[in-house]
Amino acid sequence: MSSQISSEISTEMTVPRFFVPQHSSTGAWAWILQRLTGVLLWIFLGMHLLATHFGFFTPEVTSGNTGYTGPASYNSVMARLQSPMFIVDATLLVIAVYHGLNGIKMVAYDVWTGKTARTIISWVLTLIGLASIAFGAYLLYYLV
Amino acid sequence: MSKEKIVSSETMAMTEAKRSNMLSWFNPVTINKRGIGMWAWVFQRLTGIGIVGYLYLHFVTLSSLLQGANAYEEHAYYYASIALFQFMVWGLFVIIIYHGLNGLRVILLDIGVSIDAHKILFWIFMVIGIILSALSAYLLYTIPDIEKVM
Description:
The complex is a heterodimer of chains A (144) and B (150). Chain A has helices at 2-11, 28-54, 74-81, 85-111, 115-143. Chain A has 144 residues and is mainly alpha-helical. The termini of chain A are far apart. In chain B, helix 5 runs antiparallel to helix 6 (118-142). At the A-B interface, helix 2, helix 3, helix 4 and helix 5 of A face helix 2, helix 3, helix 4, helix 5 and helix 7 of B.
């Protein structure tokens, strides 16, 4: 029954299928969130790379510990974290960890298809994700 | 229009992957029978795994911020002095650009846009990717070494 439905969906692509999680074996919400965070990563990661490598969205810093005052310097990082760019870095921490580990979960689910194995994978990756976000949050909290 | 034509290569690749394991991505028997969509899907996963690897390396290197300004900038100067790292940063830009553009293509296909033209869409996105990669190479070449790596 269910396989009949999924094969119908995969062969008839006449309706908008955005909310049909047929491409994912990890659930509808994970599938939608993977797309949503993917689009958000274009904006937030783009801003992050422009800031850290090319000095965009970075307050001007006049003094540096080693004489260097560019966007990668310690003082620039601190100034950026005290500017509205903090919101970008904090959001990026959550969506990058989620998107990355959910992607690993998709790969792992294709390799290990057993129900018990998938439950273990899901819990292990959830714990790794929560620990990563906690570590990143500690880093941001400590620095700001 | 026949039904087989409308099945996306991603769906076929997913089915193939579910039958076996990651090694099947490189199975020499089926490797020549694959369309560009399957290769796009394989590289989407490989680049994704690589980027997650970098994400955790990024956490490790950034933890030197906890040791204060001098420790952080010493680390930064050390990484910046290694030419291989500078090149790998550009490599990271390239795989992120590929993963991002192919991801957008997958979303477009999922929504239902250009489902018949996914190969054309792939090559259009790859041209955009090559332009963005060249632009990032130029921009990375013009900034100081320390700003390349951190």
